[in-house]
Write a structure and sequence with these properties.
heterodimer; A: Methylamine Dehydrogenase, Chain H; five-stranded antiparallel beta sheet; 2 helices; 29 strands; disordered N terminus; B: mainly beta; Maltoporin, Chain A; 22-stranded antiparallel beta barrel; five-stranded mixed beta sheet
């Protein structure tokens, strides 16, 4: 009798011991590579693609496409920087290269990650609350952020922070409006699109204009509610997207003349995202219809010289039917290839498509979750 | 023992772990039988006693039933209902960690919204999101927890009882007095890790021969702080969970009575209030949080039940009023911090009629009416009101060896809104069929099976959440097929005194699953009926009672769950990948022993590897976790007065893990309980 109790205890003990060693040891998630067609003559060396990752999942990830070697490297950050606690972070919202450094703005992680362009090795981290986009001018980086501070009910304004690209320290910051999004620079002026997205009953309507020599707010240009993207063309014009209010006010595209700082043209259709190269603005639009309960997606090209719709698309081979949700767009300035990402259901690995100048799919490759923002390496 | 030795030294991977447990579980029983055979020959134990096998609810239920109650429940290391239901098979508890973290139950992978939770017979509703946070229900006043797959195996129940994919029944402690007793009192205080301070009081009294009253109240405060650790093998960081504090207060009371015709009535009220911090997702560079949540829940319910004679009647009524406030200081709007307030009200009536046509044939007609409203201080909020009518006709044939139940449930739902669009009317007719059969002369073995088709209505959030809700939504349907067997056997004067086994295989289908679909941007999701899921599973439950010595009572229970829950929504996207957070293998083991004044309880949970996104790739891999808990109890009587001291260690091996990615669970923790009762 006693011995049987002992056996029971013994089995439990053994059970505990046997279970101790049964969990796989944690290790950094490995980079994955895919071989594409090499183009040794490519002028651009490659392309960084940052994947946002779904919020709270800490799945922001970095991919690199080497044009010359024809290799797609997926999820490179973790392997190069395994010592960074919780990796690249949560929701990467922008990426850019300036000089020898690669910058990734990680929104929910409240940081700008600075890496070496060649290796992807982390150099530093700049902490900025709720940061959104980044741009550069004369040795300085400018980062927009939804809020200057949190917890103060009287401080709803967002900011643009100026960071020195040599010291990687924030030098100054200035309030620009509520929930500022993308920025564009023309001359010595920085234009930032304010959304006011935290207050749907009172969206912002303005593009704030900063003089970068004095780092002062010069003016605010009234455009439309809930602004998002802003891109400069080579004629001194800015293309600004408005997301509308999702109810009565439709989304639209506006053109601002930076000589007058006035809206000079309105396109009565929504543009979700766009990339401008020479005289062409490549755009796509995703509109949710309350009538059909479905998304309608369109792809098109605008001529920015004449500010006119061309009626052409940059996808001509029917591949657009396979893209569930276009989420990022970029144009190779040398080859005129257009890169479009598909974020699918936002919780699955996405796809990067490359279309040649005639709109035919050259290749497609699997990315991380929510592939979104690009930076070419020249 | 030798026979099973290999199991300990076998190849150790996460799925074999569970088989090891299974082998050990069986090993214990086999070797124990071997032992008792030899013991039987001992002359002093050779007296022959015939013990009648008493079939319990578990064996007789036509739908799979798991129960935790009374002493077994009290012995376990559990603070809330959520802690206890983890030990059931076929269940995943979604746990955001800590005392205050949201804890919801997902039964057989059909989704949280397909499980109805009943408190003292009446459903706990949440029309806003359809989920009940089981972490909010303290075990202090709970006598019994029952989980039924399909539905409760009786036709004499409110129409609501037929209306969900599975049902969790919580029963509060009912006053029971033996001759000469007039009142009971129990005062308990718990303390331990997380700066827990948790006093509670239960008082029961006999007002008259036929009426008794009870009052239960509890206060709980904890700073919720605990260490957690994340590592990728290169970095290895330990943090402290902050903003996880919680302060709760609960008071509930009721009257129970019996009328001269032996019909029963009851009335109870329940009031709960809390304030808590909301610790968010631990992601790169973010380890502190400022969000706060306040809840206030009140309900009053009353029931009447007459079961004598050929015509039986059951009537119930409920009024519930819930308030929730969410404050996010990280979200500064033009007019201040984000401060959302949600107010819900529910009104419910139910009437059940049963007529015993013949000694073996009953028919039931039951009708429920429910009204739900939601008020929120959100921009462009629609202020919905939902009227629900449920009607069920049911019939039951109960013979000696065969029990057949069938019902047809009609549901009519009407939504009205004050502005914009409503989802309008919905009509559904859904059947269920349950059979329990004793195929042989022996009572020990029974077969059971059920088929059920049911749906869940889109919640107010699904339909009307500002800028996300979609009023085109249809209900989300499930079909369940279950085939199982139960076996129970008692052994006279042997070490193993009783063993019972339940095995169920099932196939479930979910269609028109309501999932969030992206719109133009991450901030613009919409809800759509897109998902399709196919679930094949096996639930095994073994319960055993042991008598190693006259003064020692030992019980052991083992559960095992196998689930293949595949996403079959879209051939182009993660087709036939296992659903997120559903492990293929999971299980639990509980053993408890009592010797004189001492008691000990050991419990073990295993949850196999899972994925935290739809794609089953290395990047989404979540490792298995398993946990050992142990508790010691000591009881002492002084005349009528009883004292009890308990000490518990949870997560004995201090394993750090996430149930939901980015929401870390506590490591090893302790709890001490001192209780006095008469």
């Amino acid at each position: 009798m006693i011995s049987s109790i002992k056996i029971n205890h013994f089995t439990i003990l053994l059970l505990s011991v046997s279970l101790l060693a049964c969990r796989k040891d944690a290790s950094p998630v490995k980079e994955e590579t895919e071989v594409l067609k090499a183009d040794p003559a490519s002028v651009a060396k490659g392309l960084y693609l940052v994947n946002e990752g779904n919020m709270n999942m800490n799945k922001a990830s970095l991919d690199y496409l080497d044009f010359r070697a024809g290799i797609y490297r997926r999820n490179i950050y973790g392997q190069v920087n395994p010592e960074v606690v919780k990796g690249l972070g949560d929701v990467a919202n922008d990426i850019a290269i300036y000089g020898s450094k690669l910058y990734v703005v990680v929104n929910v992680s409240n940081k700008v990650e600075v890496m070496d362009v060649k290796t992807g090795r982390r150099i530093s981290q700049i902490d900025i609350l709720n940061c959104r986009y980044i741009t550069f001018h004369k040795g300085k980086a400018y980062v927009s952020a939804y809020l200057g501070q949190v917890g103060d009910p009287g401080a709803p304004q967002g900011i643009v922070a100026q960071i020195d690209t040599a010291s990687l320290q924030e030098e100054k910051r200035i309030e620009v409006g509520r929930q500022p999004e993308e920025m564009a620079i023309v001359g010595d002026k920085l234009y930032v699109a304010n959304s006011g997205g935290y207050s749907p009953n009172n969206y912002e309507r303005t593009v704030a204009v900063l003089d970068l020599n004095s780092f002062q707010l010069i003016k605010k240009i009234d455009v439309a509610v809930n602004l998002h993207h802003i891109k400069a063309d080579r004629y001194g014009d800015l293309y600004v997207t408005s997301r509308g209010d999702y109810y009565d006010i439709p989304s639209k595209l506006f053109v601002i003349d930076t000589r007058t700082d006035l809206v000079k043209k309105t396109f009565d259709f929504g543009v979700s995202n766009l990339a401008i190269d020479e005289d062409n603005a490549y755009y796509y639009s995703t509109e949710f219809s309350y009538l059909s309960g479905k998304n309608t997606i369109t792809y098109g090209i605008l001529n920015v010289k004449d500010e006119a719709v061309t009626g052409r698309s940059f996808i001509t081979d029917g591949t657009d039917g396979k893209i569930m949700i276009p989420y990022g767009i970029a144009v190779n300035p040398y080859t005129k290839e257009v890169f479009v990402t598909d974020a699918k259901d936002y919780v699955s690995p996405g796809t990067l498509y490359c279309f040649d100048a005639a709109g035919r799919k050259k290749y497609a490759v699997t990315t991380g979750d929510i592939p979104a923002h690009f930076a070419f390496v020249y | 023992m030798k026979k099973y030795k290999f199991a300990f030294f076998g190849i150790c991977n996460s799925s074999s772990v569970f088989y090891t447990v299974l082998c050990i579980g069986l090993g214990i029983s086999f070797c124990a039988e071997g032992q008792s055979d030899s013991l039987k020959k001992a002359p002093e134990l050779n007296e022959v006693k015939i013990r009648e096998i008493k079939l319990g609810k578990r064996q007789l239920s036509a739908s799979p039933l798991q129960i935790l109650s009374g002493a077994a429940l009290e012995r376990m290391n559990s603070l809330s209902v959520a802690d206890a239901v983890r030990y059931f098979s076929g269940v995943q508890l979604k746990d955001y960690g800590g005392i205050g973290g949201l804890k919801t139950i997902n039964v057989r992978s059909m989704g949280t919204n397909h499980t109805a939770v009943f408190y003292d017979g009446v459903q706990l509703g949440n029309a806003q999101n359809g989920q009940v946070d089981l972490g909010k229900f303290s075990l202090d006043n709970i006598e019994e927890i029952e989980l039924y797959n399909g539905q409760k195996s009786t036709i004499f129940q409110p129409a609501k009882g037929f209306a969900s994919g599975s049902s969790l029944y919580l029963t509060a402690k009912q006053p029971e007095f033996v001759a000469g007793e007039r009142s009971h009192l129990r005062a308990t205080v718990k303390t331990g890790s997380f700066a827990l301070f948790n006093p509670s009081l239960l008082w029961q009294t006999k007002i008259s021969e036929h009426i008794s009253a009870s009052l239960s109240t509890e206060y709980k405060k904890s700073d919720g702080k605990y260490k957690f650790r994340y590592t990728n093998g290169v970095y290895d960081s330990t943090f402290v969970r902050t903003n996880a504090d919680i302060e709760t207060m609960r008071i509930e009371g009721g009257l129970n009575g019996r009328l001269p015709d032996s019909s029963q009535w009851s009335a109870k009220f329940y009031y709960y209030k809390d304030e808590q911090g909301l610790p968010g997702a631990i992601v790169g560079n973010v380890y502190n949080f400022s969000q706060r949540l306040w809840n206030r829940n009140f309900f009053f319910q009353s029931a009447y039940r007459k079961e004598s004679g050929r015509y039986n009647l059951m009537a119930s009524f409920k009024y519930a009023n819930d308030y929730a406030r969410f404050l996010d200081p990280d979200f500064v709007k033009d007019d201040g911090l984000l401060n959302n307030i949600y107010k819900q009200q529910e009104l419910y009536f139910s009437l059940v009629n049963r007529y015993r046509l013949t000694p073996f044939w009953d028919v039931v007609l039951s009708g429920d009416y429910q009204r739900n409203t939601l008020d929120a201080n959100l921009y462009r909020f629609v202020y919905p009101t939902r009227n629900t009518l449920l009607g069920a006709i049911a019939t039951q044939f109960h013979f000696d060896r065969l029990d057949v139940q069938a019902n047809l449930l009609g549901t009519y739902v009407n939504d009205r809104v004050e502005q914009y669009f409503s989802a309008g009317n919905k009509n559904e007719l859904t059947p269920a069929l349950l059979v329990s059969w004793q195929p042989f002369a022996s009572k020990e073995f029974r077969l059971r099976s059920f088929y059920k088709s049911i749906f869940r209505m889109p919640t107010f959030n699904d339909l009307y959440y500002t800028a996300i809700g979609n009023t085109f939504l249809m209900p989300e349907y499930t079909k369940q097929f279950d085939l199982g067997a139960t076996y129970i056997r008692a052994f006279e004067d042997q070490l193993l005194s009783q063993v019972s086994v339940q095995v169920d295989a099932y196939y479930n289908k979910v269609k028109d699953k309501i999932i969030a679909v992206p719109g133009a941007s991450l901030f613009r999701w919409s809800m759509q009926n897109l998902g399709k899921v196919e679930i094949k599973g096996l639930d095994v439950n073994v319960q055993s009672a042991w008598r190693p010595a006259r003064t020692v009572a030992l019980s052991a229970g083992l559960t095992y769950t196998y689930q293949q829950a595949l996403n079959v929504t879209d051939k182009a996207l993660n087709y036939k990948n296992q659903l997120i957070y559903v492990p293929v293998n999971s299980g639990s083991f509980i053993a408890g022993a009592d010797w004189k004044n001492f008691g000990v309880n050991y419990s073990y949970i295993y949850t196999g590897e899972r994925y935290n996104q739809s794609a089953n790739i290395a990047y989404n891999y979540v490792p298995a976790w398993y946990m050992h808990d142990i508790a010691f109890h000591y009881r002492q009587h002084f005349a009528r007065h009883q004292f009890k001291i308990s000490a518990e260690v949870n997560n004995l091996l201090n394993q750090y893990y996430d149930v939901i990615t980015s929401f870390p669970m506590p490591g090893r923790s302790y709890r001490f309980t001192l209780s006095y009762s008469y």
